[in-house]
Amino acid sequence: MTFLHIFTFLLCVIAYIWYRVRKILSYWSDRNVPVIKPSFPLGNLGEVGKKHLGTVIKDIYLKLKDKSDFAGFYYLMTPQIIPLSLDLMKNILIKDFQYFPDRKIYYNEKDDPLSAHLFAIRGEKWRAWRQQLTPTFTSGKMKMMFPIVISQAKNLQNYIEKNMNRGPMEFKHVCVRYTADVIGSAAFGLDCRALFEEDTEIIHVGKLFFAFNTFIERFKFFFGMICENFSRKLGLRFNHPDLEEFFMRIIKDTIDKRDAGLIDRNDFMKHLLEIRDSGKGNNLTFNELAAQAFVIFFGGFETSSNTMEWCLCLLALHPEIQDRARDEIREVMEKWNGELSYEAVQELTYLRQCIDETLRLYPPATVLFRLCVQDYKVPNSDFIIEKGTQIFVPSMGIHMDPEIYPEPEVFDPERFTPENIKDRHPMAYIPFGAGPRNCIGLRFAYMQMTVGLAYILHNFRLTLNPKTKVPLEIDPEHIVVSPNGSSWLDVEKIIS
Asked: Measured over all CA atoms, what is the biggest interatomic distance in the chain, rounded to whole angstroms?
């Protein structure tokens, strides 16, 4: 083969690749769907890493929301959709849920068994698990777990009192320890001792759960999302071996003690074992049981601790709001003889508004992922969303829309008075998702956050230390919405 033949062949290959790339990246413009101009090979993900994915989707939403009910989006080289209309979002998440029941989240039951949890699994298996697990998070079950949460909140108070005189406190460290102890104890009967021991194992492995801050980990995440079947053939796994070993060990130990009658607690683990023993779990395996426990445990403590951290920083920045929340806590506790009962927590309406406003600014789910499982005709349009298309619902974008929330950057709990809530579209606030696939543990999350914040604010006055970066920014490399940098607060004990 002559040099000319080789050169011609390579030229043809390059021309074909260029043609295919151009064809893919003109998918949305050829269909007259608004789109931000993509680049090769990252599509519209070019700024991810410099910005959080939720911020990137938010920016696209704000730029295109007045142009159409939906916009195109390139997830690397794959065309996807961002709904821009709140009504279309409601259709996708609730009304026409049967077309969008799944998330395209990579999981691998064989090589990474803990990844096959409720957040990721699909189809009938997801429906069965969701139906079986939902009763765990009723108001009645929350009330039974409440004394355990109170006990851990008192440990939190003691931890802060013990450490406050050493200088400013790093509240990411404080909040993670509290939520780890709460969910470990209330949901699984585990004594994590995160508020008692500085070098506890749960904090170490907890960091591994969200270890997506390296190029390799992020590449694996995107590769798994795009090439699921091939990734499974390769045995691709997300969870660190140390994390899997730790969690499998503690779950096995817990189950063995329950089966032997050594422990009997009315918690999440008991409900899982009841599913196993009833036969409703369809020959439930240990790995399947462990996976559901896994996502409740690690998904519950990181997102709640981040929200608490954001909220405390915002209250430190706004002392007048902090004082008002503290006054409400004092009034309610005086009414209930100085204690915080389950019923008393329901009366902390202004504190709940502070939490809701924090979740508006920094939602745990900045983007809601859905997968179209059958062709769907967009209402009032001739456009068909094809089976296999991913949907990126821009929850952070909605929360920062100035037409919905004037001056959206401002921290204002008054946005969540009953009067203001009823005047907004039901999709205008979705920090935990919406519809059948919303966050199953949101009641528990609110309970542990409210109790923890109430004990902190009742006993301590917080001010922002100069070591904390202001304005508060989102860490662009963290998979969940976490502050960029440490949150240092000065703590002053309130003498009653």
From this structure: 94
> What is the structure's pLDDT at 2?
73
Q: 198: number of CA atoms within 13 Å, CB side? A: 2
Question: Can you read off the two tokens belonging to residue 378?
Answer: 């967009």
Contact 26, 38 (CB under 8 A): no
Can you tell me whether residue 277 is helix, strand or coil? helix
Any residues with CB less than 8 A from the CB of 288 and at least 6 apart, and which?
Answer: 113, 116, 281
Q: Is 189 left (phi over 0), alpha (psi -120 to 50) or beta?
A: left
- Gap between the Cα atoms of 310 and 316, Å rounded: 10
Query: What pLDDT is recorded for position 76?
Result: 84
Which residues make beta-bridge pairs with 79?
Answer: 74
Residue 443 amino acid letter = R
Q: Phi, psi (5° rounding) for residue 446?
A: -60, -40
Query: Which residues is 376 bridged to in the sheet?
Result: 385
Q: What is the pLDDT of residue 204?
A: 75
* Kind plus residue range of the DSSP H or E element containing 14: helix 3-25
CA distance 493 to 496: 9
- Alpha-carbon gap, residue 65 to 59, rounded angstroms: 10
- Helical axes 349-361 vs 319-335, angle rounded to 10°: 140
Structure tokens belonging to residue 42: 């990252």
Q: Is 408 helix (H, G, I), strand (E, B) or coil?
A: coil
Residues 6+ apart with CB under 8 A from 276: 284, 289
Q: At what angle do helices 201-209 and 171-188 cross, to 10 degrees?
A: 100
Cα 176 to chain centroid distance, Å, stands at 15
In angstroms, rounded to a whole number, what is the distance separating the alpha carbons of residues 126 and 163?
Answer: 44
Identify the pLDDT of residue 10. Answer: 67
Q: What is the pLDDT of residue 283?
A: 67
Backbone torsions φ then ψ of 170, nearest 5 degrees: -90, 110
* pLDDT of amino acid 13: 66
pLDDT of res. 282: 58
Listed as ranges, residues in the chain with pLDDT below 50 are: none
- Distance in angstroms (rounded) separating the CA atoms of residues 285 and 287: 5
| CA proximity to 116, closest of 297, 216, 237 | 237
Residue 398's nearest CA partner among 439, 437, 368, 441 is 368
Model pTM score: 0.93
d(CA 43, CA 21): 10
| Rounded distance between C-alpha atoms, residue 466 and residue 488, angstroms | 8
Q: How much is the pLDDT for 214?
A: 64
Per the CB < 8 A criterion, the answer to whether 122 and 421 are in contact is no
Cite the DSSP H helix spans in 164-285. 171-188, 201-209, 215-226, 228-234, 241-259, 268-278
